[in-house]
Amino acid sequence: MRLTRLAVRDWRNLHHAALGSDARFVVLHGDNAQGKTNLIEAVWMLATLRSFREAKPGRLVREGAHRARIDGTAVGHTGTRGMRWSLQQGTRKLRLDGAAPSSLSSWFEAVRAVLFCPEHVSIIRGGPDQRRTFLDRAAFTAQPAYLDVARDYRRAVRQKAALLKSPGTTSAQIAPWSDRIVDLGARVVMARYRVMTQLRDPLRDLYTAIAGTGRGAAEVELSLRSLGGEEDGLQAVRERLRSAVESHQQDEQRRGRVLVGPHRDDLVIRLEGRSARAFASQGQARSLVLALKLAELAAAHARGQAPMLLLDDLTSELDRGRMGRLVDILAGLDNQVWLSTTDPSWLGPLPSGEALRWRVEAGQVFGEGSTNIAGR
Ligand SMILES: Nc1ncnc2c1ncn2[C@@H]1O[C@H](COP(=O)(O)OP(=O)(O)OP(=O)(O)O)[C@@H](O)[C@H]1O
Ligand SMILES: [Mg+2]
């Protein structure tokens, strides 16, 4: 799928900007603090209805303005769709082809994206919650309905935790929440497991493709740290979860915490048998995250989907060899790629005639037409 047009009004520092983007590569370049990431964030907002930076909704509206708006034209398997997101006084309004969308899933069917931004190195370096979020996001991209399962599960954990903390709660009061944790939790585990198995092989290949085979290359492995038995299916996972919840019941009541369930799981990433979290160099961690995101695209491709790839600011920390190999991979994809960078020269050769360059300066966007970046 492609976003063929993007227009924003009073979004972040962008007063009014419109850009045609009917190309395989859309390159946003300019100096620091001009609005490049804000534009990538606008695309992500259309795709996921969320910001990828921590932001109070009000901060999305340009200072001094009352309302922010993002318009996009998405071309994908559901046809050409006009999408409008707007925010006024904390209230979000959506328009799909001029009318309120019948459901959020109909919105999410129209546009899908995979995002890389520099902060995502926390998927490798950070705590298990970062990796769970990554898996959940990937499961959502694969199947937007997963959003409801993950949200209902989190809600059940919060409810049960609140009961466990409040004095005088009886086992009978807790039981229905344990049941929900078992039912929803098993579905969460299976969705994550499916995503993990779909990512495993492409990740190995793509990591090697970026890292090359020389020094610093390493074999990468993925596994899910959960209760186990996922290969036996949903029912088996549910049974395991149920017996684990039951055997920890007293412990949970004593400690006032929900100790069992996929909110405690982790995605284990290993480089040559060692934990990538502790062992990967900065460049290896960066390459791993990029390979994970590209593996998401490969998995989507296998499912017959082609989400957009949004790459915010990956100018630094990859050596020349890795960067060249990454650009080769990008050139070989059939997905639309949005890139932001302070220095487009690092991009090297993108396929000629397939890249649109836009210069971002002080919240304004200036077109430079379709260019072969290699020729510049
Ligand atoms: N609501 C808002 N109103 C006005 N300006 C804002 C708002 N939100 C963010 N900004 C400003 O937008 C500017 C551009 O931010 P952005 O992150 O897009 O820069 P960038 O071009 O990606 O820069 P860099 O190369 O440093 O990453 C920042 O100076 C930021 O303070
Ligand atoms: Mg930026």
Describe the structure.
This protein has eleven helices and 14 strands. The chain has a domain at 123-281: RecF/RecN/SMC, N-terminal domain (Glutathione S-transferase Yfyf (Class Pi), Chain A, domain 2). Helix 5 crosses helix 6 (171-211). Strand 4 and strand 5 (79-88) form a beta hairpin. It is globular. 42% of the residues are buried. The chain is an alpha/beta fold. The longest helix is centred in the middle third of the chain and has 41 residues, at 171-211. Residues 370-376 have low confidence and may be disordered. The two termini are 28 Å apart. Strands 7-11-12-3-13-14 form a six-stranded mixed beta sheet, sandwiched between helices. Strands 2-1-4-5-6 form a five-stranded antiparallel beta sheet, with helices on one face. Strands 8-9-10 form a three-stranded antiparallel beta sheet. The structure holds adenosine-5'-triphosphate and magnesium ion. Residues 36-37, 313, 340 line the site of magnesium ion.
What can be said about this structure in brief?
With 376 residues, the protein is α/β, with parallel strands linked by helices. It is 42% helix and 24% strand.
Write the layout of secondary structure elements.
Blueprint: E1 2-11, E2 14-20, E3 25-29, H1 36-48, E4 67-76, E5 79-88, E6 91-96, H2 104-110, E7 113-116, H3 122-125, H4 128-142, H5 146-165, H6 171-211, E8 220-225, H7 234-247, H8 249-255, E9 266-271, E10 274-275, H9 276-279, H10 282-302, E11 308-312, H11 320-332, E12 337-341, E13 355-361, E14 364-370
Parallel strand pairs: 3-12, 3-13, 7-11, 11-12
Antiparallel strand pairs: 1-2, 1-4, 4-5, 5-6, 8-9, 9-10, 13-14
